[in-house]
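Researcher: Let's do a round of design. I'm pasting the structure tokens now; please hold your answer until I've finished.
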């Protein structure tokens, strides 16, 4: 297999992983804390719902692209040049979504999807404390995702640097 295809897969995977890390980090540090400064709980809830749905779609695409391209680069590499960092980073990228959700829900003993639906089902009668808790929960989750994706991104950059690709 031509090394150009493998290099393109590594490049696309690395860029996607960097974007995934940036999305989670900016959500956790900038976007979600600013929701707590909105004037009404209804506005904060509406914004949180919109932000949650858009973020889920974007990060799912980025995780899929990252995992697919890095795993493809690993599979297409000649046996002598199959570096395990490609496999590890593709696994970390994939796990940074559903794996983090499952681990947090398991540690809290809650079902985050059900809590989000309960928050959306309230209609116009919104409790500001519940919105604040939902924002804090999502902020923590995105922080953990950013950490996992950040470790994978650092591993990928060091691996590519070692490859010389």
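Researcher: That's everything. Go ahead.
Model: Designed sequence:
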């Amino acid at each position: 297999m031509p090394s150009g295809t493998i290099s393109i897969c590594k490049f696309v995977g690395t860029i996607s992983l960097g974007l995934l890390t940036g999305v989670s980090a900016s959500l956790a540090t900038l976007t979600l804390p600013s929701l707590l400064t909105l004037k009404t709980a209804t506005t904060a809830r509406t914004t949180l719902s919109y932000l949650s749905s858009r973020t889920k779609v974007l990060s799912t695409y980025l995780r899929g692209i990252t995992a697919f391209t890095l795993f493809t680069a690993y599979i297409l590499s000649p046996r002598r040049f199959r570096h395990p960092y490609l496999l590890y980073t593709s696994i970390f990228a994939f796990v940074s979504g559903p794996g983090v959700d499952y681990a947090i829900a398991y540690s809290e003993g809650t079902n985050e999807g059900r809590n989000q639906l309960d928050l959306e089902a309230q209609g116009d009668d919104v409790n500001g404390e519940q919105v604040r808790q939902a924002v804090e929960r999502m902020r923590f989750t995105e922080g953990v995702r950013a950490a996992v994706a950040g470790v994978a991104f650092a591993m990928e950059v060091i691996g590519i640097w070692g490859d010389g690709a």
